[in-house]
Amino acid sequence: MKNFRLIFTCIFVGITSSSFTQQINDTIKLSVIEVKDNLIKKAPYVACDVSKLQIQSTNTRDVGDLLRSIPNVSGIRKGGVAVDPVVRGFKFSQLSVILDNGINIEGGCPSRMDPVAAHVEAEDIEKIEVIKGPFVLRYGPAFGGIINLVTSKPQPYEKFEMHASALYGFETNWNGQKEHISIYGGNKKVFFNLCGGYRSYGNYESGNLDGHDTTFNSSFEKYNYTAELGFIPKKNHTIFISYNKIHGRDVMYPCLPMDEKSDDSRIIALDYNVKISSNIFKTFDVKIYRSDVDHVMDNSKRSGYSTKQMIADVDAITTGFMSKLGMQIKKHKLIAGLGYVNIYKDGTRTMTMQMMGTTSVKNTNLWYDGLVQNAGLFAEYSAMFSSYEINASIRGDLNKAASGDTLKIIK
Q: How far is the C-alpha of 170 from the C-alpha of 174, rounded, in Å?
């Protein structure tokens, strides 16, 4: 429990009014007003959540745009979509951006055209959790913070039900539109969610300041679909299977040397959750997943394309799992578990130069059988008392990275 004090000091300088015949020139000083109260800090670290209702009430083109509305969270914009989040100045690998409490996604672009937030649509998100600082270690050794994008999951019903929802939006300033449809339902044992969306936005035009508008190449087209199935084989046991595909086409990045010609990603995940009726053990969760990203970039819509053509194709495959066991003894809670992530990346860039009637072709390895493996053990302890709370985390990781010779000449 902490005490804090608010002090308000007001100084009345003077009033002049035409309705009075006498002007008041004297300065009136008011005495200090003190407001005292007790501040109870319920969380030992700074965290905030964005609910689905807040997401639905915000007109946004991208999850990164939505993240920038959170205090102390900003973003790096390279185009009309795929804003890369920044939390308190931490970015890129300094942050752990995950999907659905543990799914890691590795993008294909060396310039981060496709960060994790670019592989999920805002309409599919149930809530966003942002933890600022290195206080939660279950998702990996990231010291800048955690951004957890939690998507909507199907829920059981007492008897069979089926529901549907649809969304359509149009934005004149960006000359764009978006559509999203969802069908969900089920019963006590089996429940499902089917959804898909499409969005297409044109180039952005600035205001008319100097007699003409300035057009920024920021157009993009994206579409996705998701299928999720949940079932309860027996009491207190739940299994979720999800399949998500998202496609990007002709995404323009005026701040980068190339644009995104196509981006095709696929995410498959299996979750197994158990509620344990025990005096000590309470929950057991296992997650297994795989994400595939096929990313193609070129400069076909740039001014110098006639003399210099560049195209790059990168494949990024991420597989992993995480398991954790939840325990509680009176006021003391403990979560212990382990996780493993395997990232494989391979890609080449072809550059064709046409000068003075001659043509030269150069092939370069962006990644050559790149491999990153990480295995970690973690534990989190928490206890709530009458006037304070204790939180402690510990984690140990074994990391291995390897690659082929990226300077090897490609024929």
A: 9
Alpha carbons 178 and 213: distance in angstroms, whole number: 25
Strands 145-151 and 95-99: parallel
Give the separation between CA 51 and CA 103, rounded to whole angstroms: 20
- Residue 136's CB: how many other CB atoms inside 10 A? 21
Give me the residue label for tokens 């007790």.
38
Mean pLDDT of 355-371: 89
What CA–CA distance (Å, rounded) separates 401 from 399? 7
Report the predicted TM-score, pTM, of the whole model to 2 decimal places: 0.84
Q: How far apart are CA 316 and CA 198, in angstroms?
A: 24
Count of Cβ atoms closer than 10 Å to residue 38 Cβ: 9
pLDDT digits (tens, 9 = 90+) for 201-258: 998 877 666 667 778 888 999 999 999 999 999 999 999 999 999 999 999 998 899 9
**Residue 5 · residue 35 · CB < 8 Å:** yes
What CA–CA distance (Å, rounded) separates 128 from 360?
49
Q: Which one-letter amino acid corresponds to residue 119?
A: H
pLDDT at residue 316, as a whole number: 96
Please, how many CA atoms are within 13 Å of residue 53, restricted to the half-sphere of its CB? 0
- Mean pLDDT within 161-189: 91
d(CA 197, CA 182) in angstroms, rounded, equals 9
Q: What angle do CA 196, 199, 200 make, to 5 degrees?
A: 150
CA 308/CA 63 separation, integer angstroms: 34
Query: What does the DSSP 8-state code read for residue 307?
Result: T
> Is the distance from CB of 83 to CB of 74 less than 8 angstroms?
no
Sequence-ordered list of residues with C-beta below 8 angstroms from that of 109, at least 6 positions apart, any chain: 260, 295, 297, 314
User: Is-contact 208 220, C-beta < 8 A?
Assistant: no
Alpha-carbon gap, residue 100 to 291, rounded angstroms:
13
Distance separating alpha carbons of residues 142 and 149, to the nearest angstrom: 16
CA distance 380 to 291: 27
CA 171, 173, 174, 176 torsion-angle sign:
positive
What confidence score (pLDDT) does residue 410 get? 66
Give the C-alpha separation, 286 to 139, whole Å: 13
Whether 352 and 312 have beta carbons less than 8 Å apart is answered as: no
